[in-house]
Amino acid sequence: MKQALVDDTEDVSLDFGNEEELAFRKAKIRHPVATFFHLFFRVSAIVTYVGCDWFSKSFVGCFVTVLLLLSFDFWSVKNVTGRLMVGLRWWNQIDEDGKSHWIFEARKVSPDMVAATEAEARVFWLGLIVCPMIWIVFFFSSLFSLKLKWLALVIAGISLQAANLYGYVLCKMGGESNISKVTASFLSQTVFQTAYFPRQQRRK
């Protein structure tokens, strides 16, 4: 019985179509307008704050302009870009008894949708985390340089952007209950390691 032998030098066609398609989907921006405005207002607020002394001598005009940009950023990130770019949403609801309830939602997506929105998620979380850190730097620089009149504006910037960051982190983690469980688990594990490993070292 003869067996067909395949020559090692024979050309073999390889299919790279799936890999190229996956790479394209990972790099694709599905909501370019939302992605643009996710960064536009917060970056504009930072640029305007830094260049206020150069562009205008009016403190009130700069204060109002930066505050409006921060307000537009808070509204757009909370109500539009978070829902479109990463499928997360948070808001406050008041029931019939007058009690306030914070609701944190995360959209269930298929693996195809996750691959398609990976680039948008990167942009979303990068902008959400980096910009509040920049405002914290502004806070200390204003404090140490004794520019106390800007502190109210800087605190407003930290508060508005940190509120969105906190809300979306809760959405990502599944709400306050899950964060409490994760925190409790981390603390218990830390205490256990602190108490257990020194005993092993003493026995050795």
Strand content: 5-15%
The computed structural class is mainly alpha
Globally, the shape reads: globular
Q: Major beta sheet, specifics?
A: 2 strands, antiparallel
Radius of gyration: 25 Å
Q: Termini distance?
A: 67 Å
Number of helices: 8
Order of helices and strands: HHHHEEHHHH
Number of strands: 2
Q: Give average pLDDT, whole number.
A: 77
What strand line-up does the widest sheet have?
A: 1-2
Residue share in helix = over 70%
Would you identify the regions where 5 or more consecutive residues have pLDDT less than 50?
1-17, 177-188
Would you write up a description of this structure?
It comes from Bos indicus. Helix 6 runs antiparallel to helix 7. A hairpin with a 5-residue loop joins strand 1 and strand 2. The N terminus is likely disordered. Strands 1-2 form a two-stranded antiparallel sheet. The longest helix is centred in the C-terminal third of the chain and has 28 residues. It is globular. 71% of the residues lie in helices and 7% in strands. The protein has 8 helices and 2 strands, in the order ααααββαααα. It has 204 residues and is mainly alpha-helical.
Compile the SSE list and pairings.
Layout: H1 17-27, H2 32-50, H3 52-55, H4 59-85, E1 88-94, E2 100-106, H5 111-116, H6 118-144, H7 151-173, H8 176-203
Antiparallel strand pairs: 1-2
Helix pairs in contact: 2-4, 2-6, 4-7, 6-7
